[in-house]
Amino acid sequence: MNYETIIGLEIHVQLNTRSKTFCSCSTRYGERPNSHTCPVCLGLPGALPVLNEEVLRKGVTAGIALGCDIAENSVFAWKNYFYPDLPKAYQISQFEFPLNKNGYVLIEDENGREKKIDLTRAHLEEDAGKLIHDEVPKGPSKVDYNRCGVPLLEIVTEPDIRTPEEAYRFLSAVKEILQYTGVSECNMEKGELRVDVNISIRQEGEERFGVKQEIKNMNSFANVKRALEYEIKRQTKILRSGGVLSQETRLFNTNKNATVSMRAKEEAHDYRYFPDPDLVPVVIKSDFIDEIRQKLPELPEARRARFIARYGLTAYDSEILCSSYRIANYFEEACENFSNPKKIANWILSEVMRVLKEEKIEIDQCKVTPQMLRELFDLMEGGTISGKIAKEVFDNMVSTGKSAALIVEEKGLRQVSDRGEIDIVVNDVLIENEKVVSDYRAGKKSAFGYLVGQVMKKTEGKANPKLVNEMLKEKIEK
Ligand code: ADP
Ligand code: ZN
Ligand code: MG
After folding, report:
1. Is residue 124 within 8 Å of residue 151, measured between CB atoms?
2. CA of 64 to the centre of ligand 2 (A)
3. pTM of the predicted structure, to 2 decimals
4. Does the beta carbon of 301 sit less than 6 angstroms from any atom of ligand 1?
5. Residues 137-151: pLDDT tens digits?
6. CATH top-level class for 419-477?
7. How far does the centroid of ligand 3 lie from the alpha carbon of residue 271, in Å?
8. Where in the chain is the domain with CATH 1.10.10.410?
9. What whole-number distance in Å separates Cα of residue 325 and Cα of residue 348?
């Protein structure tokens, strides 16, 4: 008996507005607990929420980028439940009338075919506060309400995903789109993107879906994949042995690499949704949408295609550069007015990426700006330094933030292209290596490389390699 996996995802992404959804409190992360709160986001009696226009703008931007239908009329509703991180005892969300409906995201499935993952909706809501549980067992728990009222977009997919890998690719694609459109940084360590995973198993050929399990609040795509892989094994085993699954909400335990039950369906909430009596329905005119549509930045797919066509990059290189819009921007800025973009792409993919990994930094924290990188390339192209020296200069730029030209001057790394100077070194090397020279003359061609190496060593890598080759050959073959 073969089983098929069905997966649907719910993604909460924080929209990067400066102020909260319904009040003017700051959304800044990492501030003193409860320092960014007011009667509105604390839900004090009589306080009235007012929708932040920027939240709507970013919600529509994401909706357009995700191919959704933008609703002319949408409504905020109360989602009622009690929890200590929710002082109002209701969350303002959208239920019957969400801002964005339908929509889709394209991914490549595991057979390399394009696959469309349909979206059910992408609605606006506010975040809750954050509970901080003391490390000491039975110690006190604290609550920080700074996050209360921070805007979220909840993206819900249709049950279109079939494998953990597809889920991973879908999430990566969504994250790229949200970052490219500037609606969120999607920094998962700061909780700006959280995923709830729904998964069920059914016998192949069966039309009805199996009983789904929900795994809540995952903040790493790798863990999403692991949790799904674990669930497939667990559910298949139960079904194979004739057992039945009941609907559950589960949590992924990263230490055990396993999911554990949190609550059964019977304990699920009834949220008693109803329209928020304090907020007017949201009515969007078509020119508001048109304006956003016109300003929409280039999306990842289009950019990848353009990098291939315009800069002659391979699909693979283009994919890696575009996986972060910051790196893609860096590349394009470095290439400006430079004749050989492929060379710059290779440098970014090897040297720059290596530095980012080693120093655990983002590209905009790198001391070498795109302009500085291009100056380094100008020095190489102009023959002032060799490629080998360029690597040394680059490492120095990374640690000091100095310009390539300054480092070359300070360290005396300028390439030696003076024939007279090289001639002296070549003569020395020939005299010191008589045996190698005679080997070469006797037919051992590989001896030549050794001699070139000796000249480079004596000049500390500064001799122009082309000239060295030329002059050595001239002398040795005479
Ligand atoms: P609920 O009412 O429990 O919130 P929904 O129908 O709203 O369930 O679906 C929530 C998410 O679960 C969606 O992403 C949806 O695609 C997915 N989903 C629904 N049914 C299944 C299923 N049987 N197996 C896997 N995913 C499912
Ligand atoms: Zn507030
Ligand atoms: Mg639902």
Report:
1. yes
2. 29
3. 0.85
4. no
5. 888 889 999 999 999
6. mainly alpha
7. 11
8. 419-477
9. 14
